[in-house]
Amino acid sequence: MSKKVEHKAHPDDQINFSIETVTAVIFGVSEVFKSLFNNYIIAPLQSGEGGILSPHVKITALVLVVIGWIVNMDNPIYMLAFSTFKAPDSWKVSHAEIIQMMKNQKCFTDESISFMERLLERSGTGQSTAWPPGIVQCLHGKETDRSIEASRKEAETVIFDIVESALKKAKLHPKEVDVLVINCSLFSPTPSLCAMVISKFGFRQDIQSFNLSGMGCGASLISIGLAKDLLQRRRFSGGKALVVSTEIITPNLYHGNERGFLLQNTLFRCGGAAIVLSNSWFDGRRAWYKLLHTVRVQSNSDEAYHCVYEAQDESGQRGVRLSKEIVKVAGKCMEKNMTTIGPYVLPLSEQIPVVTTMALRLLLKMVGNLLKSCGQEKWAAKLPNKKHYVPDFKRGIDHFCIHAGGRAVIDGIEKNMKLELFHTEPSRMTLLNYGNTSSSSIWYEMEYIQDQQKTNPLKKGHRIMQVAFGSGFKCTSGVWLKL
Question: pTM of the prediction?
Answer without folding.
Answer: 0.82
